[in-house]
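lol ok so funny story. i was supposed to be doing the assay writeup but got distracted and ended up predicting the structure for this chain instead. priorities right. anyway since i did it might as well share w the group, maybe its usefull for someone
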Amino acid sequence: MLDSWGRLGAEQHQAHYLHDANSVKNVVSAGPGLARGMGRSYGDVCLNPGGTVWDCLGLDKFIDFDPERGLLRCEAGVLLRDIQLLAVTRGWMLPVTPGSWFVTVGGAIANDVHGKNHHSFGTFGDHVRSLVIQRTDGQRMTCSRDTNQDWLSASVGGLGLTGLIVEAELQLRPVTGPLLDVDTQAFSGLGQFYQMSEDAKASWEYAVAWIDCAHPGSRRGIFMRANHRDASADNFDSGIPRQFSLPVTPPVSLVNALTLKPFNAAYYRLHKWRAGKSVSHYQPYFYPLDKVGEWNRMYGPKGFYQYQCLIPGTNTEAVVEELLAAISAANCGSFLAVLKTFSKRPAAGLLSFPSEGTTLALDFPNRGLKTHDLFARLDSIVGSVGGRLYSAKDARMPRSLFESGYPRLEEFLAYRDPGISSGLSRRLLGD
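and the output, tada:
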């Protein structure tokens, strides 16, 4: 039985564990199936209910690292955590990283993950030099900027549907150490957020905001921007920080009408009080939730959904306000509410999520019909402005919104591997 990170319901799967690159061809050629890494996707992009998954965590070997150029070649099951721990002490780092480092390289590529620095470094796929993919027809293909470039574009953000990613070559970026200069500021309205975001583009590499979607008054929030610090840490511990775990799943969601408003109010006041400049290690800044193991249990036995949308364009304030108003009216707020802007830069993949605009991501406890009624309202707003939802986070997007939100979908379908299927592909592509 396997479930997604959203814990919306475990499904029966047959798992084949891949332990070395040489055995991949025989296993995959016996398909059909789906590659799976850490299973940190929130929805069914990492699930193949009733079918086979190829567990890639055994493909965890570093193949080559050039410390002079920052070129890393590794198997697809290597964790981003292990890359960071290897590279940072040697003066290199992943140019783009998502909000968790418990993600495989293959998963990061297949979902073309983004971080807090899209305006500076784009997406994860922008830094993939080459891929080796295994197709279910037995073909093993190398894709790079020079060879089979179209296959590279299809596989980056391709939801794992073009073939199993066996290995990748990544270009890392230089850093002087593990520390960041961080500037934290409170804001009291969306206009302030957008001004802070625009100002940050010129001189700050990382920028992200938390917004209090449960506050009945102004759209208050906390804006956090950061740059790499031009000094190394004298007492840098290259080990994995201590992690605390939720030991059990509570009988009801800990995120509810009684807890949400006081938690958000306390979070806002604390960070407003702590506002200003500080120095932070990269780990808590990039991966704050990784300090709490199994944090997804806090939503109770019914699990949760994450709704992450992109509102395209530069003048998006009114649409974001409409989304937040709908959430407030439904009394279905979230304390994990992240607001960021994306810059205008070419997408790395045919189905890459980021493009110029504003992205809003929120977690919602699964409350059945009430939650889905809210999603229908949000979908209507997003669809009316030509927006899209993030497939890596999705567990229920309507097919029509997927098709309208990803205009290069038909182009992508030519690269599908017919022997690879997921819950998401059957739901949104009809196969």
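The chain has three domains: 14-55, 62-175, 179-405. The chain has a mean pLDDT of 91.
back to the writeup now i swear
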